[in-house]
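Readers of this paper often ask what the protein records in our data store actually look like. Such a record has a labelled line for the sequence and another for the backbone structure tokens. The tokens are whole numbers drawn from a learned vocabulary of local backbone shapes. We quote a single record here, exactly as it is kept in our systems:
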Amino acid sequence: MAKVEQFPVQSGENGITENIKDQKTREFFDAGRKQGNTPMPDDSLLMGSSTGQDSAREPAGRGAEKDNNPTYKDQIKKHRERIRIYRIFGALIAVIAVLLTVLYFTTRRFNRAEIVKVRDFPAEEGAVCVNFDGHVLQYGPNGATCADTNGRARWSITYEMDQPIVSMSGDKAAIADYGGTSIYVMSAKKQLYTVNTSIPIHKISVSECGEVAAILNDSSKSWIRLYSNEGKEIAYFIRSMEENGFPMDVAVSPDGEKVCVSSLLMKDDSVISNLSFYNFGKAGKNYDQHMVGYFEYTNEVFPYVRFMGNKACAAASDSRLVVFDTSGTEPQNSFNNMLTENLQGIFASKDRIGLLFTDLTRENLYHLDLFGRDGKKEGSVGFTMVYGDIQIKGNNVYINNERSMQIYTVNGREIFNGGFDRAVKVLIPTSGLSSLAAVSENEIDKIKLR
């Protein structure tokens, strides 16, 4: 049997197990240990090696290849750049989509109207139909009813009035008998309360919260009374017609605390109008009869006053439009616009007031100038229709008579101009421009614009 010699096995400090071939190799490792290092031997000394190169060295060109490869930070940076570009691109697409949508709705025009019957709605003889905050309010000498635009009844009341007058603000309405002694106050959903007075009613004004201000007249004095949204008398004051004049109009603020009264007085062969402001909240307790402001105008008649929110009140005469800042306790005259044309009518919404004039340029029959809460003119609408009603809703103006309708934007762009195949008593704009409701003879209809 041949004798086999087994070489000792040693483990290097780097964890590499090596077979030592001869004494020279062992001496080489021993010398390295004495110096504290374990140098790698030449490949020619290792078993199985066929080259004379150092295996620990990198092949030529590998370092250059590593420099050309992107690092982890470089990859993150490029990824963030791509995300930023995608976001910019997405934002541009969104802006373009919004601009196209705005352009579509600001230039859209309808050419025809389709009317479809919804439900029967019997009309009382002598009754008046009005748009009541998107509902149908019908009132007459014998009672009043309220229905939604689908014809479903909300409430119905009966009374006897010789000359019913109505005031509406938001979803609140008040109906009174001119010269009578009863006031009925309702919301769009139900009847709220009834007030009975001992003095004849001349004028009423309801707030968005349900409070009612009423002017009551006898032969020599006027009472202005304010009722809460439960029908309780909050305050009242008395005015002498000889000293203060005959009351023309009254307005109450949405919060029910502020009241403005317009009066007309003959003095020394002159016509004098005065606008009196009252505050029935905490701020007006220290003022005589709660009067916090008084403004007088000579040779003018102010038949119209209206609060436009709690912070502004507009008053129109035959020669001017004046807006008062009512944000403080004492009102301030914030805007005064003298009128150079003959005023034909006044129409208002929550945010705007429209003054109607005969068009002197003869390009149209009328033009409606629209003013915001600050009194500044926002636009003008010229039209040729002999109108029956004018309504301002949002940024649009609806003009109609029994057989025709025109719709304009506030700045005067025509949206629709067409006719109906049946007589329309009242038009009710809805939230969507292309869909409206109308009350025709004994029925409620839907109008679709195409």
